Amino acid sequence: MNTKLQLAVGSLIIGAVVLALKTLAWWLTGSVALLSDALESTVNLGTAFAALVAVQVAAIPADSQHPFGHHKAEYFSAVLEGVMICVAALFILNEAWEGLQAPTVLEAPLEGLAVNGFATALNGLWAFVLVRRGRALKSPALVADGKHLWTDVVTSAGVAVGVLLALMTGWWLLDPLMAMLVAANILWSGWRVMSSSLSGLLDESVPENELVRIREVIAENADGAVEAHDLRTRHAGSATFVEFHLVVPGEMTVFDAHEICDRVEQAMHDAVPESRVTIHVEPEHKSKHQGIVVLD
């Protein structure tokens, strides 16, 4: 089992434990805010399962039907997560509205908060692991899952503050009001997850700092060529696709041109792990006198 798959399975296990703890906290107190927190955890469990499936599909090698691989499966998972987050927020808003109509006194609030606090700490630790390892592995599904869990941590802390204030002041209306704030925050989180994933589905270029590094690799390792132009890049899950035209002297042999391409590809693989490089070789009269100047 590879690292991505291990993390995805870990998310399922942690999600199930946290959901059970938060459901217990709601059962102990009857708090609408704690119920909203538990509802969000059902989304965590669902998105963890979606991430597990996406990671497995993305790991399938390229085939005749999918010559560029299955990397984008992770983006579909992240979009699904965003949709599920927004649906959970609507359920929470409904529960909060009913709570506003008939505020109730909470039962065993301190016990419930203690259980919820333990669940929140567990979520926070796992969110840190997912985001850190997901970025290192270039996994959009794991990073999206980790960011959503961190949002859950923040909202759980807000819920705890709201319940404590209601307990200290006797203003039980604060409980459903806090649930509404949680729902609003979850909606914002869902939108961010979806928008970042859609950019991957639309073949957005790599970040500027990575683009600068790619240009440097080409310029420093294409000795013998004249220039490189029409550079295009995109991310697809953990893979980075790099395409460009390489201009060489007209009298250069195919063998020598191929040697240059091999050298650039190897340097690119070293600098940008899991890169997929496509180079179109052109004779010197195709020069555009712009783009990347090759360093001698």
From TrEMBL:
A GO MF label:
zinc efflux antiporter activity
Question: Superkingdom, according to UniProt?
Answer: Bacteria
- Just give the chief location class: membrane
Give the UniProt subcellular location, in the record's own words.
Answer: Cell membrane
The residues that cross the membrane are 7-29, 41-61, 73-93, 113-131, 152-171
GO CC, sorted alphabetically, is: plasma membrane
Q: How does it sit in the membrane?
A: Multi-pass membrane protein
Q: Which UniProt keywords apply?
A: Cell membrane, Membrane, Transmembrane, Transmembrane helix, Transport
Positions of the Cation efflux protein cytoplasmic domain = 207-284
Q: Tell me which family the UniProt entry assigns to this protein.
A: Belongs to the cation diffusion facilitator (CDF) transporter (TC 2.A.4) family.
**Under what name is this protein listed?**
Protein p34
The upper taxonomy is: Bacteria, Pseudomonadati, Pseudomonadota, Alphaproteobacteria, Rhodobacterales
